[in-house]
# Entry
Amino acid sequence: MKKTRIQMSRGRSLTISEFFCGAVGLERSQLSLVRTFEELLLAPNFLEPHGQCWDILPHPNARLIVVPEPLLLSHPPPPLGTRRTRLARLSGEMAEGKLEVFLSRLTQLLKEGGAFNPHTDTPVVQFLPPDKLKEALPLELGPTPSSDEELLSLCQDVIKYSVKTSHHHFHNQLYSGTDPYGLAGAWLTEALNTNQHTFEVSPVFTLVEDAMLKHILRFVGYEDGDGIFSPGGSMSNMYGMVLARYRFMPKTKTKGISQLPPFAVFVSEESHYSIMKGAHWLGIGTDNVIKVSTDSAGRMIPDELSRSIDMIVAEGKIPFLVVATAGSTVLGAFDPLDQLADICERLNIWLHVDACWGGSLMLSRKYSHILNGLSRSDSVSWNPHKMLGAPLQCSAFLIKEKGLLHQCNSASATYLFQQDKFYDISYDTGDKSIQCGRKVDAFKLWLMWKARGDIGLERLVDNTMECARYLRDQIVNRPGFRMVVPEVQCTNVCFWYIPPALRGEEESDEWWNKVHTVAPKIKERLVRSGTLMIGYQPLAHKNLKNFFRAVSACHPPPTTADMDHTLTEIERHGKDLFT
# Structure
């Protein structure tokens, strides 16, 4: 094999070995130890080269010695640059000006891939099972950086195989697409990358969170309350639990609960599982979460709550908290808040309302009556990232008694919350939180609220509720469909689809066992075809077999055509079952 030579600018010709030996300062005998350009960059003497060094190899893994053809350079190649730029290249750091290009191309890929507002003809998801998806994506990590082209190609595949939650036919969860102004707010906060704990590192966002919480508190009905944004509704509910315990017995903060009788929490049997997790995390114990019976619509029965409290007191336990649900996960049920507040006020028990899902109705003059009694509660959790469409995650915890958050959670870390700062330290809100680092979540909601105002958000909520009621009406009047609960309280619409082969038969246990298999089978077909994503589940405590749960959220704004599509696709993919 003919040796590759490098033609220098003054006519001198060097072999690669001679060139790099001179540039790096290695003895010729040592060059065999340097196999790749990456290793060359890591050679100690290369960081302080003798003379001008030239970058003649395009890729970090390119071989130095084995090159099949001569390499002739008629003019000096560009210099490698400073030590900093060489190390930046090795670590995969972007060159100046490339960030804007990369982000612009990524935004275009998101647009083309249907991440923002996909056409209804495009699939909601291109589903691959885990083993096939692993084969389709280069998930493994290695020692060397990838090029921007490789990264953009990977991002394109990520978009391709991800669920398009902004699709009009995504009704699978208690969230959907994002408000575009909220998305812009999320991008801004990600770019600025600061922490929501002190005014000095988050001056604007501290004031934004304060303004946002005060506005929400007015809708809740707390005249002089307090609040904080937390990482999700589960955490917001846990705030309610720990504050209720602290308010009932402040010494639990310092002395713990080991010497006390068991505390008891009361929830409806439709409540979110985060209360059970909170009982575990807070040392209350899941056995001390008392599930209260609900009526046929999924609402807690006040008389059953009173009976349960009496029973727990007789057992020597401390009833300190009732968690009401305003918009349950499955049925969308709203507990009777006024009646529960009567009981809690009489017995001096904290009333926390889990309004993570249904709390958005407080923005609607038409539907806010469903939340009557909310202002009588002691605390509320609400997730704007659900129905309202704020980008995940965005959860607000609100409390009626101002100052209690700080009393309960403060740890007075002196490296963050110094008392002799040069500004008003009441704006250092981090000690109210159980976190240290806290993401800026209020700004995206604030920006979309600024863009739309109370009236614009109200219209979005009203439209979503009206579409859910339209869907209910279509189900009632369409052969083969049956409502689980006749009343639609939120945007959850729960129903069975009965294939033609099962219609008209005796509804025995065997018949219901067949119906139980319908939703899972249709769901699989829907996901594989990509035409619709919708949830299903049983309710064992009510002896209800698997049924569909169609959920609508504000983004993209649902239409009656979307509701019709839901029923048409279920029927199309299920009409041949049991034939």
